Amino acid sequence: MKHLFTTKVPTMRRLVAVLLALATVTAAEAKTIRMTVKSTKAQTITGFGAACCDGAMCPYGDDTEPVKQLYGSTSKIGLNIMRMEISPSFDGDENVSWSTYNWHGCVPSALIVKRRGGIVFGTPWSPPGEYKTNGSASGGRVNEYDDNDPQNQRGKLREDCYEKFFPWLNSYLAYMKKKGVEVDAVSLQNEPDWWVNYSGCLYDPQELVKLVKNYANQLDRETYNGVKLISGESLGFTQNYTDPLMTDPTCRNEIDIVAGHLYGHAPLEVMKKAVVLAERYNKEVWMTEHSVSFSDTSLPTWHDQLRFAEEVNECMLGGCTAYIYWYMRAHWAFVATGEESFGKDNKYKNKLLPRAYVMSHFSKYLTGSTRLKTSLDKTDGCEADLEYSAYIKGDSIIVVAIDTTETAHSLRLTLPNKVMSGTHILSTGNEKTNLCQKTDIEIAEPTKYVTVDLPARSLNTYVFMIDDGSTGVAEVKKRPATGTVSYYDLQGRRINGPQGLCIERLPDGTTRKILAE
């Protein structure tokens, strides 16, 4: 042991220099992250949205400000899907107040969303009470703390009323169409696996199979613009509710969209397994409700907002084609309620909240894109310190990167195509800067290799313009503003006819940029 004490000890100055050198090397090694974006394609993204339902959205018959702020390609947020409650009423009586349910409540907002090119879909919380075993629209769970309380009744659709269910949905579609709203899709049931004391209806998985297999052909798709049918939206997006509908050939033929919620489960756990059969049979997969909320008194921190971004990102990595949040207006949602007790961001009613800008990283840029696999795709578990995903849309490659750590990094990207320019959309939660700041990414000449900044505690979207070997003008062809093909803006959103520089989709499915006269 003696030699340990007789070895020459470095001076304090030398020791500090050595430590600084080591720290510099470590930081340099940790700073650059390398990611390859592959050409392998996954799902195409239909869009992003929120619910226009009871609660913080009341009364919204005349208050359409949230959808005006959130929806459409020209809005700051760019949502394009809206979820509506199909209440148990038969006739949508406009003289009945929302507190006792009617179908009119969602109409004003739905009209705006549809005019802006969006998708609207309806979800039953309960069929009419007289169709049910407990004779009520309520789920029947009076005592939520004691399932054996004799007051509790399990409200289910009576089997002798299965044949009435789809005609009831048709009557809802007829009412909405009369009011000018073409509903794009209807669901079987909100959370069929969750016994509640509010409006609700319980189904076992095989009961949903029986309902769809024997009666879904009554859904009048021809009259109602090819309306799509969504599976039951289970509480935790579990396989026991999705797989039976996919394994039965008749049900599989009737169901267009497999859906569920995320309560109690991370996207890359249970939901990922439920997606497998849906992908095999080319069904869309929608996450149709989740609220990333906090206690009544606490306010979302910037880290909480990054956790929300990770959830949306993980849904994309898990195979979702659409992500629909819960309420539009709440202190933990997209639009402020005006309640000062929830902080200065929420003080002014209908002000856009930070979470809305976080969502815009996805809704403004990924709608209409196709996900590309990467070397750093996260495939299981919950949130991570760093997360990524990548997409292609038209002539753009898009990369999303989330850094929840206190350390800034550089992201070294290897892209599947040469790119000639780029834009960095950055959100850091810094009150002194705006959310969704845009800066140009300098690219000297077309290349597949780009290094971009990945700041600490940040959400980043990088949009790169693909180089096609031309000046970027030669491929744009002038075309008269007529024709029967479909047209989309450069954000991938459908428009009514060619307008300026846009995307033309021909009947054979091919697309090209055109310049309409």
The CATH superfamily of the largest domain is identified as: Glycosidases
**Strand order across the largest sheet:** 6-5-4-3-2-9-8-7
Helix content: 10-25%
Average pLDDT, to the nearest integer?
A: 86
- Strand tally is 21
Low-confidence stretches are 1-10, 15-29, 96-100, 470-483
- Tell me the name of the CATH class of the largest domain: Alpha Beta
User: Over the alpha carbons, how many angstroms does the gyration radius reach?
Assistant: 26 Å
CATH topology name of the largest domain? TIM Barrel
How many domain units? 2
Describe it.
- The protein has helices spanning 2-6, 12-31, 65-70, 107-115, 162-178, 205-215, 239-247, 249-254, 270-280, 302-318, 354-363; strands at 32-44, 47-52, 81-86, 119-124, 185-187, 228-230, 257-261, 284-289, 322-327, 370-374, 386-393, 396-403, 409-427, 437-441, 447-454, 458-466, 477-479, 486-488, 494-495, 501-505, 511-516.
- It has 517 residues and is α/β, with parallel strands linked by helices.
- The chain folds into 2 domains: 45-371, TIM Barrel; 477-516, no CATH class.
- The protein has an 8-stranded parallel β-sheet with strand order 6-5-4-3-2-9-8-7.
- Strand 4 (119-124), helix 5 (162-178) and strand 5 (185-187) form a beta-alpha-beta unit.
